[in-house]
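Complex 305.
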Amino acid sequence: MSTTWHVLGAGSLGTLWATRLARAGLPVRLILRDPARLRAYQAAGGLTLVEQGQSSLLEIPGETSTSSTPIQRLLLACKAYDAEAAVASIAPRLAPGAELILLQNGLGSQDAVAARVPQARCIAASSTEGAFRDGDWRVVFAGHGYTWLGDSGHPTPPIWLDELAASGIPHEWSTQILTRLWRKLALNCAINPLTVLHDCRNGGLQQHQCEVATLCAELSELLQCCGQPAAAQNLQQEVERVILATAANYSSMHQDVSNGRRTEISYLLGYACEAAARHRLQLPHLQQLQQRLVNQLQQRGLPSA
Ligand code: NAP
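Predicted structure with NAP bound:
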């Protein structure tokens, strides 16, 4: 009998994972925010995955955090700023030897979660897959990609990687997951805040090459100082490549701001600036970028942390 995959958060990534696992015949249960969300979910009859124009409805059972069944395996699929509270709500249900997969972008939330549940194994993930909601309980699989998974404390891969393969979830076990998370954070810091401040698509940053290059130099210095030299390698080159390859897209931070949604700034640029301060590293352009972004968010009435 397979272990149940509990998925906390029926948003874009949570739905993308839950539907593919369920479609492969694996036992999946969704954990929803509260009884009202659970009733709304039950009325919809399940989660819908839209892939290449085809919709499929998967009748995945739902519950709230207060359900009594033990949790052996949990996919944490909420935003970074919700992660710690979400895990605290299910902590009493974690079985001995429970495993958590943390899908949050950026850095900082993984440590906060691990500190909340020292009895569990926390596996961090970094994903290039893309999905968005086009309605309640409906998700469009927008960008094929890859998910790297790893546990910096224990290099042994978990036994369930085969289940991801059987579900068609492209993945790789990484013994350098921290380096991957730092690299992605640095790319995000060099691109996303500037797209908000210049109100442009990623490609619009080709008009601001000097600003991008200066940020990349400071971010590389930070990565070196934080013991992540591999994440600093050819950073500027990769940033320029990403800007070109995604020229027509709006960054996730730009989308959040223009839709009046909270950003994950504290786990991206905020985390980078805090790390610099901890190392007493002067990175004036990065610090100025954070201040400009905070001002912009405050002007729009959005949380700046
Ligand atoms: P999302 O669509 O906003 O989904 C988050 C979900 O978590 C929401 O459905 C929210 O519920 C739920 N949630 C929050 N707190 C909860 C709680 N205590 N109990 C139950 N449910 C709770 O976010 P997302 O786009 O999937 O992003 C998740 C993470 O993946 C982020 O860190 C993001 O940066 C990262 N990521 C996303 C993508 C992507 O393509 N979407 C790609 C790579 C990485 P409500 O609906 O009730 O608010």
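DSSP finds twelve helices and twelve strands in the chain.
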